[in-house]
Amino acid sequence: MKPNTPIDVADFFKQQLEHKEITPPEEIWDKVSSQIPTYSTSIFSNQWWIYNSIVAIIVVSAVVFFWLNNTKPEISSGKALQVDRHQGDISIKKTIAPEKNLVAKQDAKVAEEKKSAVVIQPTTVSQLKQTVYYIEASTIGLLEKIEISDTLYTIKKVIYNPLPNDYGFYELNIQELKPGSYFINFYRKDGKKIQRKELFR
Amino acid sequence: MNEKQIIEQCLKNDRTAQKVLYQTYAPKMYAVCMRYSGKRLEADDILQEAFIKVFKYLPTFRFQGSFEGWIRKIVVNTALDHIKRYVEPMEEIDDNVSDTFIIDADEVISGLTMQELIALIQELPEGKRLIFNLYVFEGYSHKEIAEMLGISVMTSKGQFSKAKKMLQEKLLNIKTKVL
Predict the structure, then answer these.
(1) How far apart (Å, rounded) are the C-alpha atoms in residues B140 and B153?
(2) Is 90 exceeded by the pLDDT of residue B19?
(3) Which residue ranges does chain B devote to CATH 1.10.1740.10?
(4) In this predicted model, which residue has the larger pLDDT, A109 or B154?
């Protein structure tokens, strides 16, 4: 500050005293230190620990939930059939059997999962859905048409002049049909009609 | 050790860290106490009580904002509690009272020591001293001071003006005596 500088009284005191230090008497520390509380060092007493745990539980639960929801069976029945058919020399009977086994295994797996204590979202029906229905041509004969109707006899699908595949099976695409019981009417070329009741998954 | 580490160590009941914390901030806070109190013994009591509160509430400090500012708030509030006990009702002062009190900071005035200047503030009546400190050093507005002390804004302004006038007179007296 320059000598003889006119200055407001309040500003003068502020400039001269702000940020100044005065050493307090020693005995004040003795009195203060005798009254410092003992802090709890247990991690359980720390509120942040509790908050962090809650957040961690929520995050882990969310991850597990989404992971279970988005996990599909590794092999669907349709895929299994396609793989087997590409092998060519394996008979269709052998391909059907694994499909049935696969469905049965998947059923068992679903049942097991339901029983399990771990909360697992049940595998949805669409994931197990049967997409193709096979029937041996030799047991049915030559056909004019195949009609699929539900249990209320509402016709759901008609296939005219179906032909057996290379392995001697009629192959019906039932992908668009909802799971349930259906009547399958086989109209033979000789005028006879065969009806079967089937459960499509 | 930085400030955060000292605080963390204090919370682990480390006596050395607790003393380091006290020694770091006590001299600054003692100067504050001296300005607010009329006597040295009272300043000692305020500092002691304030630091007991600092250690008591230390686990609640969340490292948001300045730690020194946090301690200073505790010290000022403790000083307020002490002084408010015996502050006499402050009279209303005409709003037209002058707010400008100028002094020439010549060699005599500029040569005054910190202790001498603090002594001049300590000589002010409690109410005026309190308002002068809150306004000049803590930066509170007259509205805030009025709310804190339960007085009108006009009273706060008037008391502040009177405090400045008294300090101006004291400084002029010192000058006259020396010259």
Answers:
(1) 12
(2) yes
(3) 3-86
(4) B154
E strand or H helix at B102, and its extent? strand B102-105
Q: What is the pTM (predicted TM-score) of this model?
A: 0.58
Domain with CATH 1.10.10.10 in chain B: 106-178
Q: In chain B, which residues have their Cβ closer than 8 Å to the Cβ of A33?
A: 15, 18-19, 22
Chain B: nearest CA to A53, how far in angstroms?
19
Cβ pair A14, B118 in contact under 8 A: no
This model of the complex carries an ipTM of: 0.90
Helix H or strand E encompassing B105: strand B102-105
- pLDDT for A125 beyond 70: no
Query: B164 and A9 in contact by Cβ < 8 A?
Result: yes
Q: Tell me, which fold does domain B3-86 have in CATH?
A: Rna Polymerase Sigma Factor; Chain: A (1.10.1740)
Query: CA A114 → CA A22, A85, A100, A108, A201, distances in Å?
Result: 75, 33, 21, 10, 19
Q: If pLDDT is split at 50, 70 and 90, which confidence band does B30 have?
A: very high
CATH number of B106-178: 1.10.10.10
Best of B55, B122, B157, B169 to substitute, by most chain A Cβ atoms within 10 angstroms, is B55
**Inter-chain residue contact B171 with A19, CB threshold 8 Å:** no
Identify the bridge partners of residue A196 per DSSP, sorted by sequence position: A184
Cβ–Cβ contact A54 with B under 8 A: no
Q: Which pLDDT score, from 0 to 100, does residue A119 have?
A: 44
- E strands, chain A, where? 5-8, 132-136, 143-150, 155-160, 169-173, 180-188, 193-200
Rounded to whole angstroms, how far apart are CA atoms B106 and A3?
4
